[in-house]
Amino acid sequence: MISTIILGGLGLLLLYFVFYLVRDLIAHRDSLKLAENKVKLVIAFFIGIFTDFLDTLGVGSFAPTAMLLDMTKNMEHDRQLPGTLNVAHTIPVMLEAFIFIAVVKVEPMTLFSLIVAAIVGSWVGSRTVSKMPEKKIQFYMGIALIVTAVLMGLRQQGMLDALGAGNEALGLEGGKLVIGIVGNFIFGALMTIGVGLYAPCMAMVYMLGMSPLVAFPIMMASCAGLMPVASAEFIKSDNYSRINTIGIIFGGIIGVIIAAYFVTNLNMDILVWIIIAVVIWSGIIYIRKGLKKDEPETV
């Protein structure tokens, strides 16, 4: 019942997003010039396959998409980048959520609670956390992720039995559920300053004793609940690249399907080491962001 409510809610959000996107594309169909932009469409298509494959593995899609769009010079205006990242990846992320909720067994109340916590956290974060010193938070989050990854690795080797052996839980209850809700609330809030939810959510779910595969429906459904509303605002403000969005959406759908099959058929030990690698990589990225000095504004 709860899973049906979650899927129904995500479905309504998807329809809300698609309504604005399709209406906007129809309104600007004459300016799209698809025939003249075939090369850009093809480039965006392959970017979508690659980045949403990575996203489905838990690496995230925003950073690699931004890098590839810059490398290929496929973006005409950098100011459209935030909107393009959100709008182009909303449908692939929704697909990730639908697939993993349907395929991976998760205790429904745990899934529902953590999704709601992340959504509420992002709402609160947009009004509070976004005013905090961004670089300090990124730096300390990076340190925390690397420490967590080391602990995960030691536990995987049987060197930290105190943390529990064999992650098989499909849900949380009692104090662990409270910790999970608070954690995902914080991760949702931190998204407003560019700290992605995937890596810390993966680490938290694992450290609370749940099956590593359970992290995927939780983190993807959390983000799927956040993205449609934000993306609709970018569409309404005409602040995204339509050509890149079209290509990335279609390529991204293919990337998600390939990666979802790959992930759900992986040996759990291999999956844990992939998660550890993702968490370490994310930690390094956050530390670098935290240490990077702001460039002086030019007049």
From TrEMBL:
<dbReference type="Pfam" id="PF01925">
    <property type="entry name" value="TauE"/>
</dbReference>
<feature type="transmembrane region" description="Helical">
    <location>
        <begin position="83"/>
        <end position="104"/>
    </location>
</feature>
<dbReference type="GO" id="GO:0005886">
    <property type="term" value="C:plasma membrane"/>
</dbReference>
<keyword id="KW-0812">Transmembrane</keyword>
<comment type="similarity">
    <text>Belongs to the 4-toluene sulfonate uptake permease (TSUP) (TC 2.A.102) family.</text>
</comment>
<keyword id="KW-1003">Cell membrane</keyword>
<feature type="transmembrane region" description="Helical">
    <location>
        <begin position="109"/>
        <end position="125"/>
    </location>
</feature>
<protein>
    <recommendedName>
        <fullName>Probable membrane transporter protein</fullName>
    </recommendedName>
</protein>
<feature type="transmembrane region" description="Helical">
    <location>
        <begin position="270"/>
        <end position="287"/>
    </location>
</feature>
<dbReference type="InterPro" id="IPR002781">
    <property type="entry name" value="TM_pro_TauE-like"/>
</dbReference>
<feature type="transmembrane region" description="Helical">
    <location>
        <begin position="137"/>
        <end position="154"/>
    </location>
</feature>
<keyword id="KW-0472">Membrane</keyword>
<keyword id="KW-1133">Transmembrane helix</keyword>
<feature type="transmembrane region" description="Helical">
    <location>
        <begin position="243"/>
        <end position="264"/>
    </location>
</feature>
<feature type="transmembrane region" description="Helical">
    <location>
        <begin position="6"/>
        <end position="22"/>
    </location>
</feature>
<feature type="transmembrane region" description="Helical">
    <location>
        <begin position="42"/>
        <end position="63"/>
    </location>
</feature>
<feature type="transmembrane region" description="Helical">
    <location>
        <begin position="175"/>
        <end position="199"/>
    </location>
</feature>
<feature type="transmembrane region" description="Helical">
    <location>
        <begin position="205"/>
        <end position="231"/>
    </location>
</feature>
